[in-house]
Amino acid sequence: MSSSCQICVFPSLAELGFSLSQLLVNESQCSDGLRLGLSGGSLVQLLCRELPKTAALNTEGWRVAFCDERLVPFSDPESTYGEYKRNLVPLGLISESQFVTIDPTLPVEKAAEDYTKKLKELFSGNDLPKFDLLILGIGPDGHTASLFPGHPLLEVTDKIVAPISDSPKPPPERVTLTLPVINAAKTVVFVATGESKATILKGLSNGHAMIRHAFPKCRGGLSNII
């Protein structure tokens, strides 16, 4: 499928959250077992607030992985999986067994290898995982997942998951999906909220070379939701 970019602007977080929840409803109806990649940060609060209110949402058959994850215990507030688990599992919206997680007890290189193995099992038969939907955030510096502008990980093409031990944003140790995996997803949504993202979004829309390099050219559908 050729790449197409759609930019959607919402005047409030409530309307943004509703739009994301409806996107997930639609994707669930179109996919026989949704393969979903989520991000952390402000997206956790946004999705965990909206999804329980979405009556038409059917999460049965979902498998949820993470676009990146910090190498911290699941009990740590910095753990992306930990935050989704604490907010969604007790409500019965999704079960722990539906998540694909890192092993935070391993060294970062081994954690990346272990997560790679788990994703290959989830996407058996595919050399490159092809997610139905990835929901990614955008940092004020233009980073997405744990792929930062100017960082060597942007050039990695021989791995589906890469370790990072020098993240410009703490905590320093993380694992992240690489650009080839993001590029291969059927649909990718970037969510940017707040005034701090205005400069990076302006640069993206104006085709700034450094900023464009930080964002993948996805083969499927691409949306920026602001």
TrEMBL record:
<dbReference type="GO" id="GO:0017057">
    <property type="term" value="F:6-phosphogluconolactonase activity"/>
</dbReference>
<keyword id="KW-0378">Hydrolase</keyword>
<dbReference type="Pfam" id="PF01182">
    <property type="entry name" value="Glucosamine_iso"/>
</dbReference>
<protein>
    <recommendedName>
        <fullName>6-phosphogluconolactonase</fullName>
        <ecNumber>3.1.1.31</ecNumber>
    </recommendedName>
</protein>
<dbReference type="InterPro" id="IPR006148">
    <property type="entry name" value="Glc/Gal-6P_isomerase"/>
</dbReference>
<dbReference type="InterPro" id="IPR037171">
    <property type="entry name" value="NagB/RpiA_transferase-like"/>
</dbReference>
<feature type="domain" description="Glucosamine/galactosamine-6-phosphate isomerase">
    <location>
        <begin position="30"/>
        <end position="206"/>
    </location>
</feature>
<dbReference type="InterPro" id="IPR005900">
    <property type="entry name" value="6-phosphogluconolactonase_DevB"/>
</dbReference>
<comment type="pathway">
    <text>Carbohydrate degradation; pentose phosphate pathway; D-ribulose 5-phosphate from D-glucose 6-phosphate (oxidative stage): step 2/3.</text>
</comment>
<comment type="function">
    <text>Hydrolysis of 6-phosphogluconolactone to 6-phosphogluconate.</text>
</comment>
<dbReference type="GO" id="GO:0005975">
    <property type="term" value="P:carbohydrate metabolic process"/>
</dbReference>
<dbReference type="GO" id="GO:0006098">
    <property type="term" value="P:pentose-phosphate shunt"/>
</dbReference>
<dbReference type="InterPro" id="IPR039104">
    <property type="entry name" value="6PGL"/>
</dbReference>
<comment type="similarity">
    <text>Belongs to the glucosamine/galactosamine-6-phosphate isomerase family. 6-phosphogluconolactonase subfamily.</text>
</comment>
